[in-house]
C-alpha cells in the first residue's frame, strides 16, 4: 500500500479499500475533474429520491387505468414520461406484463443492468454471482430461494438485460383490491415484484 | 471477452441470498465510488461500454473475490490511468502531481448533477435497413471476441426467434474499444429453455437476450 499520510483520519479505523477510494477522490478533486459537492449530490439523490417508490406508482397507475396500462406496455419510456412527476425515466424502458399464463423475471448475466430510475440501485443479490449465473438456467430454483412458487403450467420468461434496454415487470394486481386508490395500491407493490422475484403484497398483509 | 463476468448458466455459485432491509450502500466508500464513476463518465472520460470492459478485465480471481463496488473502483482507477487522466505515481502518492488532462465535457460540478439523473440515449439513426423482422428464426453466432461483447456465451450457436426490434443503438463492441459508435439494429431474441440447456432444461422456461444484428445469422 502507498503512503496515505495526507488524510487527517485515524488510519487504524480505515480499511485499505477506504484509503484507496479516498486517495482517488483527492486526486480527482485536486486535478479539477470533479467537485466533491457534486459527488455528495449524486449520492443524496440515490439515497433519497430514486427508489422503488417510483416504479410502484407506475404499477399502481397501470392497475387503475387501462389506457395508461396499454400505453405503458406499448412504450414504457413514453408512457412514464407523460406522468411527469414520477421520475425522469430514460429511453429504452420496456415494461413486461405478468399474466396467469406467463411470469416474467429480469436478470443481467453480464453485469448489473437494472432500471435505476424506476427501482433505485440494485440490491447486492441482483449483482452477485448466484443470481446472475442461475436465473437463466434454473429460474424456478432461483424463485424458490426467494420463497416464491409459480405454478408448473405457467411459463417463466427470463429477460437477460444485455444491452441498454431496461426491463420492468408489471405484476398482476392482487385480488381483493377493488375500488382501491392508486396510493393504496402502490403500497402493495414491492421492488422484487417489479424484478419478477416476488409478488405484490396481499391486501391486509403486514408491511 | 470470455471472462468470468459472463456468468449465465455457470454452476456452483450457490443460493441467492436476499438481505432484509438492505441499505442503499453498505459502506460510505461505496457511495463515493458510485459517484466518481458517474461523474467521470458524465465528464466524458469514458463511455459505459469502456467502463464495463475495464471491470471485465479485472483478473478472474480478483473479480470473483471482490465486492460489487470494489470491482467498480478497480475498473475506474485502471481506466483513468490508462486513459491518461492520472498516473500510477499519483495513485501511489495519493495526490495530484501532474497537470490535468482536458475532459470532453469539462469539470463535473454541482450544475451537472441533474442531467445524469436521466439515462443516456443510445438510439441512433439507422445506417441501413434491418436484416431481420419480428418472428424470424436467427442463430446466435459462435464468436469469441477477445474484446468486449454483449453476446453471452450461453446463447452462442443456438437458434431463437426475433420478438422485438428496438431500432438502431450504439454498438458496445465498438464503443468499448473507442472505435466509434458504429450503430447496429438491436433485437430481443427469445430462446427455449430446452434449446439452451438440453433435456434437463425447464420446458416451461424461455430466455431472451437483446442481440445486436452483427451477433446474428439467419437460421
What percent of residues of chain A adopt helix (DSSP H or I)? 40-55%
* DSSP helical segment count of chain A: 11
Low-confidence stretches of chain B: none
Structural class of chain A: mainly alpha
What proportion of the residues of chain A form beta strands (DSSP E)? Answer: 5-15%
**Radius of gyration from the alpha-carbon trace of chain B, in angstroms:** 20 Å
Q: How far is the first residue's CA from the last residue's CA of chain B?
A: 24 Å
Please state how the strands of the largest beta sheet of chain B are arranged side by side.
Answer: 4-3-2-1-5
Approximate shape of chain B: globular
Give the integer mean of the pLDDT values of chain B: 96
Low-confidence spans of chain A: pLDDT under 50, at least 5 residues? 1-6
Biggest sheet layout of chain A = 2 strands, parallel
Assembly type of the shown chains? heterodimer
SSE class of chain B: alpha+beta
SSE pattern of chain A, N- to C-terminal: HHHHHEEHHHHEEHH
User: Spatial order of the strands in the main sheet of chain A?
Assistant: 1-4
Shape estimate of chain A: globular
In short:
The complex is a heterodimer of chains A (207) and B (219). Chain A is mainly α. Chain A has helices at residues 16-30, 36-49, 52-64, 66-74, 76-83, 116-119, 124-127, 129-134, 139-145, 182-186, 191-195, and strands at residues 93-97, 102-107, 155-160, 166-170.
Overview of the molecule:
The complex is a heterodimer of chains A (207) and B (219). Chain A has helices spanning 16-30, 36-49, 52-64, 66-74, 76-83, 116-119, 124-127, 129-134, 139-145, 182-186, 191-195; strands at residues 93-97, 102-107, 155-160, 166-170. The model of chain A is unreliable at 1-6 (pLDDT under 50). In chain A, the strands form 2 sheets. In chain A, strands 1-4 form a two-stranded parallel sheet. Chain A has a two-stranded parallel sheet with strand order 2-3. With 207 residues, chain A is mainly alpha-helical. Chain A is 43% helix and 11% strand. Chain A contains 11 helices and 4 strands; from the N terminus they run αααααββααααββαα. Chain B is of the alpha+beta class. Chain B has helices at 28-42, 48-56, 60-65, 68-82, 88-93, 172-175, 193-197, and strands at residues 137-140, 159-169, 184-192, 205-212, 216-218. Chain B has a 5-stranded antiparallel β-sheet with strand order 4-3-2-1-5. Classes of the chains: A mainly alpha (207), B alpha+beta (219). At the A-B interface, helix 1, helix 2, helix 7, helix 8 and helix 9 of A face helix 1, helix 2, helix 4, helix 5 and strand 2 of B. Strand 3 of chain A pairs parallel with strand 4 of chain B, so a sheet runs across the interface.
Amino acid at each position: 500500500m502507498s503512503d496515505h499520510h495526507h488524510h487527517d483520519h485515524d488510519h487504524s479505523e480505515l480499511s485499505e479499500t477506504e484509503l484507496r477510494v479516498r486517495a482517488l477522490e483527492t486526486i480527482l478533486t485536486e486535478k479539477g475533474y470533479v467537485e466533491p459537492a457534486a459527488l455528495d449530490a449524486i449520492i443524496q439523490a440515490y439515497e433519497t429520491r430514486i427508489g422503488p417508490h417510483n416504479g410502484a406508482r407506475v404499477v399502481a397507475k397501470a392497475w387503475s387505468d387501462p389506457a395508461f396500462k396499454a400505453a405503458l406496455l406499448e412504450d414504457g419510456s413514453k408512457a412514464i414520461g407523460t406522468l411527469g412527476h414520477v421520475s425522469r425515466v430514460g429511453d429504452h424502458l420496456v415494461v413486461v406484463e405478468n399474466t396467469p399464463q406467463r411470469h416474467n423475471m429480469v436478470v443481467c448475466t453480464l453485469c448489473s443492468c437494472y432500471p435505476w430510475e424506476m427501482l433505485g440501485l440494485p440490491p447486492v443479490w441482483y449483482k452477485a454471482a448466484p443470481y446472475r449465473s442461475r436465473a437463466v438456467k434454473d429460474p424456478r430454483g432461483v424463485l424458490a430461494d426467494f420463497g416464491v412458487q409459480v405454478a408448473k403450467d405457467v411459463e417463466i420468461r427470463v429477460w437477460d438485460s444485455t444491452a441498454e434496454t431496461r426491463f420492468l415487470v408489471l405484476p398482476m394486481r392482487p385480488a381483493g383490491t377493488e375500488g382501491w386508490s392508486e396510493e393504496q395500491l402502490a403500497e402493495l407493490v414491492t421492488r422484487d415484484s417489479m424484478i419478477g422475484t416476488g409478488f405484490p403484497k396481499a391486501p391486509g398483509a403486514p408491511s | 471477452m470470455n471472462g468470468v463476468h459472463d456468468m449465465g448458466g455457470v454452476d456452483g455459485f450457490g443460493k441467492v441470498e436476499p438481505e432484509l432491509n438492505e441499505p442503499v450502500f453498505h459502506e460510505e466508500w461505496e457511495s463515493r465510488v458510485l459517484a466518481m464513476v458517474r461523474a467521470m463518465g458524465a465528464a466524458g472520460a469514458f463511455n459505459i461500454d469502456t467502463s464495463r470492459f475495464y471491470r471485465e478485465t479485472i483478473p478472474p480471481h480478483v473479480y470473483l473475490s471482490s465486492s460489487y463496488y470494489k470491482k467498480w473502483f478497480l475498473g475506474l482507477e485502471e481506466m483513468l490511468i490508462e486513459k491518461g487522466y492520472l498516473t500510477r505515481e499519483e495513485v501511489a502518492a495519493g495526490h495530484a502531481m501532474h497537470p490535468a488532462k482536458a475532459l470532453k465535457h469539462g469539470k463535473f460540478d454541482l450544475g451537472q448533477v441533474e442531467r445524469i439523473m436521466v439515462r443516456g440515449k443510445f438510439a441512433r439513426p439507422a445506417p441501413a435497413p434491418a436484416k431481420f423482422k419480428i418472428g424470424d428464426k436467427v442463430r446466435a453466432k459462435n464468436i469469441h471476441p477477445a474484446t468486449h461483447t454483449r453476446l453471452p456465451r450461453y446463447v452462442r450457436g443456438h437458434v431463437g426467434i426475433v420478438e422485438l426490434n428496438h431500432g438502431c443503438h450504439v454498438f458496445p463492441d465498438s464503443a468499448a474499444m473507442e472505435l466509434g459508435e458504429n450503430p447496429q439494429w438491436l433485437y430481443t431474441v427469445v430462446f427455449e429453455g430446452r434449446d439452451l440447456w438440453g433435456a434437463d432444461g425447464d420446458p416451461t422456461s424461455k430466455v431472451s437476450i437483446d442481440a445486436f444484428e452483427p451477433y446474428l445469422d439467419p437460421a
